[in-house]
Each structure stands twice: as C-alpha cells, then as structure tokens.
Write a structure and sequence with these properties.
Layout lengths: L1 H56 L6 H4 L14 H9 L8 H12 L2 H13 L28 E8 L7 E2 L2 E2 H14 L6 E7 L10 H5 L2 E9 L2 H8 L10 H15 L4 E8 L9 H10 L5 E7 L3 H13 L1 E7 L2 H68 L5 H56 L1
Length: 461
Amino acid sequence: MGFRKTAMLVLALLVIFALAACGSNETKEKKTSAEPVEQTKKKETKDPEKAENQKEDMEIATTIEEIIKEKSGKYSANGYNKAIVHRDLDKHSFQDKDSFQVYNYLLGLMNEGEKYEEFVTFAEEFNPNIETALTKTPEGKISDEVSSGNIGTSNIAILLDASGSMAAKIGGKTKMELAKQAIEEFVASMPEDSNISLRVYGHKGSNKDSDKTVSCGSTELVYGLKPYEKERFKESLGKFEPTGWTPIAKAINETKKDFEKANLAGQNIIYVVSDGIETCEGDPVKAAKDLHDSNIQAMVNIIGFDVDNNGQKQLKEVAEAGGGQFETVNTAEQFKRVWEKERVRLYNEWSRWSSENYNQVSSESSDKLNALYGKKSDFTNLMYDEKNHLADAVYYLRQKEQISAETREEVESLIQQRRKIIEDYIDKKYKDLIKHVETEGKRIRKEIDDKGRKMREKYSS
C-alpha cells in the first residue's frame, strides 16, 4: 500500500515536469516565428520610399525645352554602333525592370538632347525678315519706303533764272519764253504722283547796279510743292518776267527750306535753269553741296541755257557738288531734247533699279530658305535616328527575352511620345519661319516689280 502511493507520487511529478518542458518549447517556437514577421514589416516600410526615389529619377520629358536640357547618351550621334549597344545591353538584366526603367536606361545610351539644342537655338534666333538694303533710286535717294508704297514718288523743284539776260532772243523767242515752254512740257510728262514746285529768282528790280540789292534778295515760290495741275502751273509761269540779277545760291538755300517744310516722302530732285553764273556774291557750289549732303539728299541738276565757257565751268561745278548732272543747250530744240533725255534716263534707270533690287531680294530670300530647309532636314533626320536606335534596342531586348511583350509595347509608346514632341516643334517652328520668309520675300519683290513697271510706264509717255 505504501509502495503504491510512492509510485503514484513519482508519476505525478514526472507529468508535471513534462508539461513544464512542453510549455517552455512552445514559448520558444512562438518567439522564433515572430521575428520574421517583424523583419517583413521593416522591409515593407522601406520599399515605398525606394519606389518613390526611383519614380523621381525616372521623370519623362514632356516639352522640347526639357528634352534639349538632357545630356547626350554615350552612344549618341556619331558614337552610335548597333553591335556595341547590343553588347552593352547584354551586360545587364532587364527582366525585373518596368517600362520606365528600361526606357530611361536606353535613353541614357542614345539620347540626342544636346544635339537637338543646336537646332532649337538656330530656330529661336533666326531672323526671317528680308534685310536687303535697296539701292539708290534713279532720283538719287536711298529708299527704305518699299512697304509704305512711297518708292518712286518724286518731289521735283524747278528753279528758273529770271535775270535780265533771259530776255535775250533765240529764234524769235526770248530765252524765258523757251524755258517756260520746255518746263511746262517736262512737268506734264512726269508721273501723276510726283510733286512739283517752281521757284523763280532775280525777278524783282532790274539788272542795274542800283537795283542789285533788291534783285539779289528776290526769290519766290510761285508754285508750291504739290501734284501737277496744268492750269495753275501755267498761271504761275505767267507771274514773272526776266529783269534782274542772278542769286542762284539763295534760290538753292530757299529750296532746301521748301523741302524741309513740305516734309514729303519720296525722292527730292532739283533742276536749275540758268543762262549765267551767280552774280550776287553767293556760293552756289557750297549751297548745292549742303543741300545734297543734308537729310533732304536732293540731287541738283543744272541746265545751262546759252551759257559761255566760264559760265559752263561754274554751273558744272554746282551740279557736281549737288550730286547731279550738267547739260548745256543753245537752241529751243536742244532745250526740249534735254528734258526728253532726262525722261529716257529715268525710264532706263527705273528698269535697272527694279531688276537689280528684285534679284537682291530674291537672293537673300533663297539663302534664308535654303538655311531653314537644311536645318529642318538635319533636325528631322536626327530625330528619326534617335527613334530608330531606341526602337532597335527595344526589339533586341525582346528577342533576348529580357523584357515582356507588354513592357516592349509600353517602352515603344514612350519613344513615339518623345518623337511626336520633337516632330511637332519642327513642323510648327520651322514651318512658320519658312512661311514668313516666303511671304515677305514675295511681297517685297512684288512691290519692287510693281513700282518699277509703274514708273517705266509713266516715263515712257
């Protein structure tokens, strides 16, 4: 009996020890299994941060401005070689990469961003305006008024000597009568849009010494600078007769004031008709030079009517100083031929002016268009080179089963998106520049051609 109790006590103790051991093992197993859970949680908190950093590193350019800021790839432009690119790709694994990672890696190899910048800078700084400086018009003034339609508008001032010597007769008529007749015929043949003025000098007092002061101070604008009106111009010719001295310098100086006061667009030209030299102590050579060199830029032509050798010498110097020509006539018929010669000269000069400037504008326009088309072509070719190089690399990766069909499709979509951004810029920017050059060149050529033809028609009658 005592033995049985002792055995049962020993058994009970063994059971208690066994249970305690099991509890201890269970606790260890639970701690061990909890550790991986904690580690997993720590990894999960790191992955989003890493993903965010990767996303920031893979920003995709969406404008041409962003594209040209990108660095060129190490295999861009002339550095591209398909075999070398393939070997580079073979060194890397892309199976765990998404489409953005693949695209950015390939772009890092074959990016043409820095080269694109050259073409964008060219387009942004290109001046599409036609800058050809037109040559001097037949009347002698450099014209910059093509666009305003004022080329060829002539402001013609006629200065007529009314000194006493103009009362002398040639072939039954006085020099003054012949001069008035020739002048009237000449101004009637000028283009309709020309402005005409008539200034007379030496028409007061007489050619006596006692009247010299009065006569030398006399010059009058009898027909103001305005379009030709036949009856009024004829009336102005009848307001004076030859009587006094010859103040040529004063007449030229006053004509300069006439031009300044009128302030009309167009070319300024003067015809001085005189039968003798300056007799009022003035300096007509200086007056002519001052007028020609001023902002008026008038050309001073002299027509010497029955002038002696000394007179011809001085009047020729006046014409040369004024940038014009000197002609001498001795008969009424010669007087008419001078005016006719001048009309023919202007006709021929307008033909030359029209042709010369038309060709110069055409040349500049062609040069600018060739430059634009050349850059546009090079820009486009570079764009397609980059696109094709990227597409070939994507195809290669797919063939090597480095990327899935889905990833290939997404990367190709990004490549096409980039190509379209560049292509849209080329099409709009270069197209606008080309259109501007073509339009302005055509407009200016047409204005030159129209004006030349118009002036030739007017001087041909």
